[in-house]
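Feature request, filed as a ticket because there's no other form

It would be nice if the structure record came with a short human-readable summary line next to the tokens. Right now we just get the raw output. Example of a typical job, pasted below so the devs can see what we mean:
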Amino acid sequence: MDTTQDNITTQAINEAAEAVKPNPLERRIDMTVAMAEIEREVEQQLKKIARTTKMAGFRPGKVPMKMVAQMYGGQAHSEAIGAAIEKAFGAAVREQNLRVAGQPRIEPKKAGAENQMAFTAIFEVFPEFAIADISGCTIEKPALSVGDAEVDKTIEVLQKQRTTYAAAGRAAQKGDRLVIDFTGRRNGETFDGGAATDYAVLVGDGRMIHDFEAAMEGVAAGQETVFDATFPKDYHAIDLAGSTVQFTVLVKAVEAPQLPTVDAEFARSLGIADGDTAKMRAEVRANLEREVAKRLRARIKEQAMNALLETHTIDVPTAMVDAESQQMADKARQDLESRGAQMKNIPVNASWFTEQAASRVRLGLIVAALVREKDLHVQPAQVRAVVDDFAATFEDPQEVVRWYYSQPQRLAEAEALAMESNVVDWVLANAQVADKDVVFDELMGNAS
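Raw output as currently delivered:
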């Protein structure tokens, strides 16, 4: 017996069965619309159109109704049928108390009587479910206090961000900046992207391939060096992946890093007008405390949302997933274009995002149900607190607050954050919570 063929056949049968699996959220409603109702609507539509119709030889609004019907009868008839179906569908949905997700698909069917038009509306409904018990979930609540050591580390980062370079007068070592000309050859021929002039390289920062960076340690200004280098097998340029090439490098300059002194000038570079370093430290601490609190809260939020997803198994409307997938694909395309990518011949398919979109839709439905059932609606004071927190880092916070309240879209973002905060608080109040100390460098992404 050919077991391989049997396995393939079984898999095909399973996949086919999955493809035709009924959608548990799909509903069908049969409707009929009286032709007399449609005709009345057509007549009203044509009378409305006739009031403003212009035609050579007639004053505006005085075109004969027969001519108006000849010109716009098809449009009016189509709109009348659409309006009648919409009205009938709305009445049927209200009668059955259904919560429709997405737009219905309308299919004509054979009418039961000559004076009627019959249709079937096929659509999805929102899932009905109860809020699950999350008392068995454990949320690790990260904790970190900002002290002098954390302030010092942050100031060190700020110093490194303002690093300048000066001629080293010695051989290159890690941390130095080199200015080089280089040419790479494979089998004696130069390759695309393998040459540059006056190129700046930071020794040891990992931006160049390993063999190239290793060859830069110990070189001196004015030196020319030739060496072989092998590209990683997973290198992004497929034609170079795993290849060994030869580089010729002319070192034009070796520059050592110079960290700025923490003094009045440094304080002024951070926005402290009078250069008071004590004020600078106080401001760094305040900003750091705000950032630490934000990152800690983000970790808690991620765990809280995951707990809700793990404890609620619900079906999601396909229409909503498709819409979310398309939005994600559009955003991905826009992000790539903003970075200079030429997207004309690069497809970004919505299907790539289906799984993530389904998770987002599922979480959105769970959160919405939780807010309704547990009355976690946002209060104006909570929204204002979010806006104030945004505004606190700006020179004129009140101006930022006014700007938020004059921009409905921005204010809606603040309301969404406030609502998420209410949901997280509810999860923390109903799940198991375990305090956990976190390391500053790891939290801030400074770990080497």
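Something like this underneath would help us a lot:
The CA atoms of residues 15 and 21 lie 10 Å apart.
Residues 277-311 form the longest helix (35 residues).
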